[in-house]
Fold these 4 entries.
Entry 1:
Amino acid sequence: MSIRLGEFEQLVLLALIHLADDAYGVTVRREIARRTGRTTSFGTVYATLARLEEKGLITSRLGDATPQRGGRRKKFFRILPAGRLAVSASLKVLRTMTRGLAPSWESP
Amino acid sequence: MSIRLGEFEQLVLLALIHLADDAYGVTVRREIARRTGRTTSFGTVYATLARLEEKGLITSRLGDATPQRGGRRKKFFRILPAGRLAVSASLKVLRTMTRGLAPSWESP
DNA sequence: GTCTATATATTCTATCAAGACGAACAAATC
DNA sequence: GATTTGTTCGTCTTGATAGAATATATAGAC
């Protein structure tokens, strides 16, 4: 059996894919909000990121200080192959469950 | 915000749609296993069904005894409009999160 | 007919994993 | 040291999970 992903974990992984090199707590939260209208607290986002890293689905590196305007250094996240596999599998599960239904239902 | 669905709750609701009039604990579990290859315990299935009913997304009625081959009476479940709405919304969220990615990713 | 074996299905109990939030903390620049 | 930006902590609620226990129907023995 492949790795089990929670509902929000899926969203975070997909956000990481979209954000590519610019994925850190703040942008992840923003990307999800922008696309889905769903706003969550930072606590939720970071907890999920930590859990995903724990599971070996993503990695993190600490970014350099930007000479812009104050603030703590960013912790950038990147999705790993195992992470892509996990999302892919969990989307596939949904696809097989929606197969045969009316078009508006199929393929989330 | 629309009702929040857990990952397995989605699968159960979709199974109910497929099974239509023949949805009860055993068939729900079987349908999910058949389609996704994922087998869960009955405890999990019934707990989820109970939770979904609690939330007002599905209803249940007790079936008649079948003159077949022993066994307890079945408890049939049916998805309610609110349930359809909830799955629909949660699938939509995934669609918006996969939009723009390679075809193999899009639309779970 | 009643009794017990068997098949079928659901509920209970306990525990761990995920999701959620707000406050606290940390570290950069000005 | 004040401000800005970003992350971590503590705590609680909800969702997922398995396995044992329980319930209830029929079949067949007698």
Entry 2:
Amino acid sequence: MATGRGDELKSIQDETSKGREDIVEKIFGQQPDDEILYDLAELFKVFGDSTRIKILYSMFENELCVNDIAKLLNLSQSSVSHQLRILKSSKLVKFRRDGKSVYYSLDDEHVRAIISMGMEHVEE
Amino acid sequence: MATGRGDELKSIQDETSKGREDIVEKIFGQQPDDEILYDLAELFKVFGDSTRIKILYSMFENELCVNDIAKLLNLSQSSVSHQLRILKSSKLVKFRRDGKSVYYSLDDEHVRAIISMGMEHVEE
DNA sequence: ACAACATATGTTTAAGTGTTCATATGTATA
DNA sequence: TATACATATGAACACTTAAACATATGTTGT
């Protein structure tokens, strides 16, 4: 790429072609493994559905059983249960059984934090 | 639902059917507007693609031009540009033009925070 | 064991979306 | 203005996925 020598342009070169390569290489070394970034995307994908977000938000402060959620959000029991399964497998919610009902709640503070951060961004 | 009177079961009733309704109603009042939760889901949907996450992560500490990103992540220029357009419209990245190149960077701290929170959850 | 209720799961279908290829727009230099 | 380089955009295709319906599993009380 560099035509000829041009030592007097060295600093400028650093900022353009050659410096770019260095930066790209540096960042390449800093990137987490593909697998981790894939998992990260999968996690956000779970948050990226309005039904699931509604379900998660409904549990922001309380635990709720499947039927509660279905009534609250006007959804079919099947739909809620399917979504809860996805939320469960991503460790976004935990649950406990009490008689015939199963009560779901947010799994930990990360979940609350992620939702809150997203909210702040959206409400700007 | 309540068969007969059974005043002595009042507190228990509160914990079951009638109490449930109250809780559901309370939460119903606390839920943000559907529109906001829809936007929130749309936001997370943008994070929910491994290519976009890789792109975002590559800009975690540095600004990068389209070509840098394409080389770094071994993606086509077209693909990167398409994804950057989505990231732009969600206000997750900002950009500046410098000659022929366009340099992109994360838009604000919310973006970094959301990614970090997600990372913590994934790395558990 | 049986009936009634609560939840979970399997399957199908329609809608949404990321990538590729081709092409257009924008910018700098000769 | 003509050429080369950098980025953006349009369109088609393959793939994913949420919702609906039917059905299965699990739990309680009779």
Entry 3:
Amino acid sequence: MSNAAFTIRALSALAQEHRLAAFRLLVQAGADGLAAGSLAERLTIPASSLSFHLAQLTNAGLIIQRRQSRSLIYTADYAAMNALMGYLTENCCAGGDCTTDTACEPQLVDERKVA
Amino acid sequence: MSNAAFTIRALSALAQEHRLAAFRLLVQAGADGLAAGSLAERLTIPASSLSFHLAQLTNAGLIIQRRQSRSLIYTADYAAMNALMGYLTENCCAGGDCTTDTACEPQLVDERKVA
DNA sequence: ACAATAATTCGATAATCATCGAAATATCGA
DNA sequence: TCGATATTTCGATGATTATCGAATTATTGT
């Protein structure tokens, strides 16, 4: 039973320009993650604003924070991301003509032609 | 090249209790869709409130409206949904240790032990 | 044309959210 | 311990969002 409350929080967290951009940078950064300062620089927003957004993403369970010396490093939580995807596609196409269509295939996840 | 503006609008549209519930009902309903009145009844919210939410979902391109006699029938737009998924998982795990992890696998889509 | 049905738009109100400078907290190197 | 660096918390302000009754628009059958 997927949790609707988690889903709402996750979607709310991602439904904002700077947070979506930050999350995507973290997804691309992989396990190394990125420091808050680095994110603020790339997004060109004040540190306090970014901090607010990172708190939302953390609160939603989408990113994880760890300290490394003076910096706070953030990483994407892929498991949470997958849980979100799962909830959104759950019971997809019960109507019946999904199998013959472009619809509801998780194929896009494989499209990472990444290194 | 996925459009960030579309993604923000789609996520904002889904990041609300009643809209997420409505969208999920439509996803399950398939091509037949559901009338506005039927949705209002199932969600137990006033028609005017629902109408506001359906407008947001339509505006975000996530659902499609068609008229059938006196009723307006809404259906989920699966292509838009897939575009959204694609954008969210784009460049997933560039960090490198994704292939060895739990990360970025679409496996959760199968976790629906619903019914 | 009229009454009934189905849904949207309008408008006011309450609630939540984003922004960012200033102050506070944590860590490190000397 | 002191100064510098990295980041968060606080607080005030402006902006956006959700709610829902009443009025409006669209469609149908008679």
Entry 4:
Amino acid sequence: MSALAALADPVRARIVEMLAERDRSAGEIGEHFPISQPAISRHLRVLRNVRLVTARGDAQRRVYSLDPTAFDEIDEWVTRCRRIWNRRFDSLERHLDAVAAKKSRGGEK
Amino acid sequence: MSALAALADPVRARIVEMLAERDRSAGEIGEHFPISQPAISRHLRVLRNVRLVTARGDAQRRVYSLDPTAFDEIDEWVTRCRRIWNRRFDSLERHLDAVAAKKSRGGEK
DNA sequence: CTTTTATATAACTTGACTGTTATATAACTT
DNA sequence: AAGTTATATAACAGTCAAGTTATATAAAAG
């Protein structure tokens, strides 16, 4: 599963937001959702697998941290699409400039 | 379905990339995938629904364009998380500064 | 007006994902 | 060592999304 697919789930997106604020244990995270503890645990596993979060042990607890590296992956994709998209208008502009230049050289109409 | 969820599907992500390059008809898009025409048609409907693309008629064809507005939605979410995340280090910095200042004022150890 | 071309919709199947309860693991507490 | 706390895993059920084939629509071409 990709980082993007992982974030498509609203619970996981919210978990990521929570972890942006501060590190939290699995239990702390679970308190904010009306679903069972195992469900949260599996969401956390998914987020670990796509490297959106990391976990460290603290006695019985597992404390989760956001790993913002995965954001870059998404950001880069969006940015790349935007860059390609913008390039279209650049070349359209060049084309229109060329047409305008031709008109000037060759006289009206 | 959110724009993020729509892009989580690899076929749709690829379609968006293709449309960033240039507008294409539904058929043109379909040629690039090993799946049936109806499957492509439904992916396009999903992309239309989340406003990632628009379609205009050209005789029997439907020509699809990227609508990069929806990118902003994703970008904003990612940026917001990053901003919150970065703020953590700002306040950590402030804390460390405060500790350092105290030390200077109060003498060593 | 019948046929062809391009795309969309309908009905259905299948597989993956999210939730559940029950149970295992692992560390702290007494 | 026995009990408690925190989290993970197993097994299973329901939902939903993505694929399929068959069919409908709509414009072009003959």
